[in-house]
Amino acid sequence: MKAGVLHGICDIRYEDIPKPEPKAGQALIKVKYTGICGSDIPRVNADAAHYYPIVLGHEFSGTVEEVGEGVTSVKPGDRVAGIPLVPCMKCEDCQKGNYSLCKHYDFIGSHSYGSYAEYVCMPESNIVKFADDVTFEQGAFFEPATVALHGLERTGYKGGKTVAILGGGTVGMMTMQWAKIFGAKEVVVFDIVDERLELGKRLGATGGINTLKEGFMDEAMAYTGGRGFDYVYETAGNTITMKMAFELAANRADVCFIGTPTRDLTFTVKEWENINRKEFNLTGSWMSYSAPFPGHEWELVAHYFATGDLKMDDSFTFKIFPLSRIDEAFELFKTPGTVKGKILIDSEQ
Description:
Blueprint: E1 2-8, E2 11-16, E3 26-35, H1 40-45, E4 59-67, E5 79-82, E6 85-86, H2 92-95, E7 106-107, E8 119-123, E9 127-129, H3 136-139, H4 142-153, E10 162-166, H5 170-181, E11 186-191, H6 194-202, E12 207-210, H7 216-222, E13 229-234, H8 239-248, E14 249-257, H9 269-278, E15 281-284, H10 296-307, E16 317-322, H11 326-331, E17 342-346
Parallel strand pairs: 10-11, 10-13, 11-12, 13-14, 14-15, 16-17
Antiparallel strand pairs: 1-2, 3-4, 3-8, 3-17, 4-5, 5-9, 6-7
Helix pairs in contact: 4-5, 4-10
């Protein structure tokens, strides 16, 4: 089969490799779309890959081609999305159902060969089916959609409250929609690009605030009667928005950092003192799994994509590249600001 094989820094090649065969308990997936995750960029364009050669790719959709011995939950022809984490199921964290925290996990697309290929093998438990009226493009967004839902639930989220979403990217827009689906009173998106704020409103946000504008904090507080937001979700991994979360939080609020930081972060005493004076709860979120594995996050994404309550927008996808041009796709990330949305790799082209 053809695959995009990473041989070194900035050295990803379209070439032939052996087609995998499903073992007992596995299924062979004919891949349609794979999204380029932010974590894939330093693996290709820097030195973050675990080893070479490696086939990356973990946000993907496709069709079951063949099943191994003992597989009963999926069959050839099923439309499916891949679940990349393969926990050990033996460590203390796994025994508690905290699969995201497993220290001995495998991960399809970073530790094991992934979906930048025509085919990929998956354990039966790592496959979620979706309805015929859910597109393969939506299927490639299952993983970021589950990341958003997992982050929302890390705070013990309840409806009827005010919610701030910091960052209008894919995960931010998904987090905003989950907050609305589960009954938020107000959901406000914060970003520096007006087009992202307008997108948020189209998808159901109460409002959008450009944080580059003078006086934006007063505008934000007006949504809450000056008391601050009950829930604050930081999805950008940006030092500015991570500090902003502390300012926007109400007394006894819940704050969750979903975004992955890329730079060191320091707080002044006054900034950090917000935690003490407001007594808000601060937590992080990592991946998207719960017990029983892989978790209700994956079932709910399939359900709400099918009902239409969880919406896609054309702007979510920036470009679609055939697998044969995967090197060109990663070249775009070398120029900051070029990529505005998700790039999908089409393994059938």
